[in-house]
Amino acid sequence: MNTLADRQGKQPIIAAENLSKVFTSGIFIRARTEAVRDASFEMYPGTVLSLIGESGSGKTTIGKLMLKLIKPTSGKLLYRGQDITEIKGKDALRDYYRKVQGIFQDPFSSFNPLFRVDRVFDMVYDVFLPHVKNREERTAEVLESVNLNPARILHQFPHQLSGGQLQRLLIARSLLLDVDVLVADELISMLDASTRMGILNLLVDICRERGMSILFITHDLALGYYISDYTMIMHRGRLVEKGATEKIYKNPVHPYTKMLFNSVPDIGHKWDRNEKFVPEHVEREIEAFYRKNAGQGFTYVDAEHGVLLSAE
Ligand SMILES: Nc1ncnc2c1ncn2[C@@H]1O[C@H](COP(=O)(O)OP(=O)(O)OP(=O)(O)O)[C@@H](O)[C@H]1O
Ligand SMILES: [Mg+2]
């Protein structure tokens, strides 16, 4: 991808090359869902990449592929140049799971309700950082850096903490592990507006300071604009538009992206899961767009701005 980071000579931390995932189900009649088709993208240190699209477009599937929770059907995912399907063996896998972490929508589900916070951290040390001597000191440091009071929080159970505090804890955990890549899937959608901005700003600061790379999966176009350096728009398993956030928001080319930006009634609008997302006439417009540009495939319309012009 011809990006600014590329031109500055930075190596991507993650590179997806023609990544596809097909889910099959049913014994007699095989139902086939092409959740992700032919996705290529790069993630660079110290940058946030947003992944935006309607429900069912394949966003979480991309996140799960990166976290090595599911295997690609075809194509490759490279982590610092290495194909992640080739990462095998206990030690190599543990290193990968340490460096590439996910934070999901519901922070409560990420914690064992029976363990107090100090126990959660103990387990992180036991599994990933057995050589660290000054555990208490390190824990206090990371908790303070996410604005949590160690003395207050360490002896509490998850149900005694708010959603915002739990997400801060997850971020603190990532800091402790010194993660490279964070997959944040609808991270803040459960939080109220004020807590939300605090967590987002914290995340972006950490990303920049530590050279971490974040995949920020969201339904919220305004948040995407606010937080990300690069943006990818997903429609029916395809990345239909991607590149520098400014360029995509100022000059959308794909009819689906245009529809998204036109249909945002107010800042912070999110799709209702039951909403009919893509109106019939937009689907027809997309088909006509692909027909008109037949044979052109994914094309760069500008240095940092690519569009799927035809979908064969
Ligand atoms: N384990 C699975 N088995 C079969 N189909 C699946 C599986 N996981 C996802 N899918 C299908 O793949 C498609 C993409 O799903 P995915 O969860 O990636 O969408 P999403 O963009 O994250 O949606 P949302 O915004 O609702 O979270 C959907 O059609 C979904 O039903
Ligand atoms: Mg999802």
Q: How do the strands and helices of this protein lay out in sequence?
A:
Elements: H1 4-7, E1 14-25, E2 31-43, E3 47-53, H2 59-66, E4 74-79, E5 82-83, H3 90-99, E6 100-103, H4 117-128, H5 135-145, H6 150-153, H7 163-177, E7 181-185, H8 193-210, E8 213-218, H9 221-227, E9 230-235, E10 238-244, H10 245-250, H11 255-262, H12 280-292, E11 298-302, E12 305-308
Parallel strand pairs: 3-8, 3-9, 6-7, 7-8
Antiparallel strand pairs: 1-2, 1-4, 4-5, 9-10, 10-12, 11-12
Helix pairs in contact: 5-7, 7-8
Magnesium ion is lined by residues 59-60.
How would you classify the helix and strand content by structural class? Answer: alpha/beta
- Give the C-alpha Rg: 20 Å
CATH class of the domain at 1-80 and 219-312: Alpha Beta
What share of residues are in beta strands?
Answer: 15-25%
SSE sequence, one letter per element: HEEEHEEHEHHHHEHEHEEHHHEE
Question: Shape from CA axes?
Answer: globular
**What is the number of helical segments per DSSP (H or I, 4+ residues)?**
12
How widely separated are the two ends? 20 Å
Strand elements, count: 12
- Determine the mean pLDDT: 88
